[in-house]
Amino acid sequence: MKRSFLFSRLAALVLAGATTHCVAQQNTSRPNIVIIYMDDMGYGDVAAYGGIDYITPNIDKLTATGMRFTNFYSAQPICSASRAAILTGCYPNRIGIHDALFPNSNIGLSDQEETIASMLKKRGYFTGIVGKWHLGDAQKFLPLQHGFDYYFGLPYSNDMWPVDYDGKPFNDTTKWRGRFPPLPVIEGNYPIRYVHTMQDQSMLTTWYTQKAVSFISQHKHQPFFLYLAHSMVHVPLAVSDKFKGKSKQGLFGDVMMEIDWSVGEVMKVLKENGLEKNTLFIFTADNGPWLVFGNHAGSAGGLREGKGTTWDGGQKEPAIMSWPGVIPAGTVCNKLAANIDILPTLATITGAPLPSRKIDGIDFLSLLKGDENANPRDHLYYYINKNSLEAVRQGPWKLVLPHRYPSFVGGVPGKDAWPGKARTDSTDLALYDLRRDPGERYDVKEQNPDVVKRLQKLVEQAREDLGDDRTNRPGKNRRSPGKL
C-alpha cells in the first residue's frame, strides 16, 4: 500500500512536470531563436528556390512548416557589411563597416553598437555564435565583446589564408595571399587550432554542427539565441567524406547536401529536447553567389549578376522562417523585407528594448503572422563599397543610379576552385519593374517618369541621411566603426 502510494505520488509529480514543460514550450514571449546564415549562397541554391541536381530535404521541411520569402534582401552584397547589417539592424555604411575586412584589420564593429545578442541578453537569453564572424579579428572586436556568451569559429572568410587555389601553400610574401597569417579556429577569445589544409577545411561544417548541437543541448533550460554562420558555400569549397561525391552537381552540390544535413541536425536536437514548437528558426544568406568561380559558385536563380554588385543577384536572398503555431505553415511572403529587419522583429517578439542609437530595420512580425494587408517596409536602399548609393527599391520598382560594376556576363568563368575573370561594365539611370522583370533586363524609365521622380526623392533623402560617395555627400547621421 505504501509502495503504491509512493508510486502514485511520483507519477503525479512526473505528470505535473510534463505539463509545466508543455506550457513553457507554448510561451511565445521568449522563444528560442536560431539563425543560420549562409556564406555566398545564391537565390537559386536551395531546392525550394530552384536548386537542382542535389537534394535539401531538411531545408525543404523548413519551407513546408514555415514561410518562404521571395523579396528578402541583404543590406549589402559582401561579407562584413552584410554581417554588420543582420546583427545591428543598420545599413552597414551607417556604422562604418564596409566590404570584407582582412586579417589584422584596424577597424571592426564598434562597442557602441548593440547587436541582436546584446539586446536579447537583456531578456535573459544565453547567446552564442558558431561559425564565421568577420567583423574584426582583434580581441576587442570579437563576439564575446559584443553580447555573445559563447563563440566558436573563424574570425573571417575561409579563403583568407596563405594557401593557393589548388590547396598548396602560398609562400610568396610579395603578394597579398602570401602575407595572410594561418587561419585560426577561435573558441571564446583565443585560437584553439589552425586550418592549414583542404582536409581541415572539409571539417568546418561538421565542427560547426557539432558545436551548434552541443550549444542547444547545454542551454535547453533557458531561452537561447544561436547564430550559426556557416563558412560554406564560400570558396574554397570543401566537404567531409560523408558527402563527397553524393550529388549530381559536383563539389558545390556535395557541399549543399552537407549544409542541409547540418540544418537537419539542428532541427533534430530541437525536437529531441521538446524545443521545436518554441523556436523561431531563420535560414538565409549574406549575399549572392561569387560567380567568378564558375562551377564552384552557386546560382542567382536567373537574377542579374551576383556577389559584389547591387543588381538583385547580389542582394536578393533565400529566406525561410519557421515558428510552429505562429508562422502559418507552407506559406509564401512576397512583401519586401531585409536582413536589417530581423533585429527589430526579435525585439518586438521578445519584448527587448530597441538600441538607443538609430537603426534602419523595421519590425515585420505582421508578415510572419500571415497578415496579407501588412507592408511594413516601404523602400530599401542599395549601398556598396564604403558608402556608394547605387539603387533604391519601392514596391515593385527599382531605380538604378549610374555606376560602374564588375560584370560576369561575357566574362571568363572559373573552374574547379580557380577563379575566372570578370569585366567592368556600367549602367545609366534605369528603372525596372521587378514584378515583370526580376532579371532587370528592360529599362522602363521613359514610360514611367512619375515613378522615377518619386524614387529620386527617396534617393535625396538617403544622401541627406547616410551620404553618397558617388555624389560626394557625407551624410548627417553616419557613425564611426570601432578602431584599434
Number of strands: 19
Overall number of structural domains: 2
With helices defined by DSSP (H or I, 4 residues minimum), what is the helix count?
11
| Overall CATH class of the largest domain | Alpha Beta
CATH homologous group name of the largest domain = Alkaline Phosphatase, subunit A
CATH architecture annotation of the largest domain: 3-Layer(aba) Sandwich
Q: Which overall shape is indicated by the principal axes computed on the Cα atoms?
A: globular
Average pLDDT metric? 94
Sketch the topology as an H/E string, one letter per element: HEHEHEHEEEEHHEHEHEEEHHEEEEEEHE
Radius of gyration: 23 Å
- Could you say which structural class the secondary elements and strand pairing correspond to? alpha/beta
Largest sheet: 11 strands, mixed
CATH fold-type name of the largest domain: Alkaline Phosphatase, subunit A
Distance between the terminal alpha carbons, to the nearest Å? Answer: 73 Å
Q: Helix proportion of residues, in percent?
A: 25-40%
Residue stretches low in confidence (pLDDT < 50, at least 5 long) are: 1-26
Protein name: Sulfatase
Pfam families: Sulfatase, Sulfatase_C
Signal peptide: 1-24
Biased composition (Basic residues): 473-484
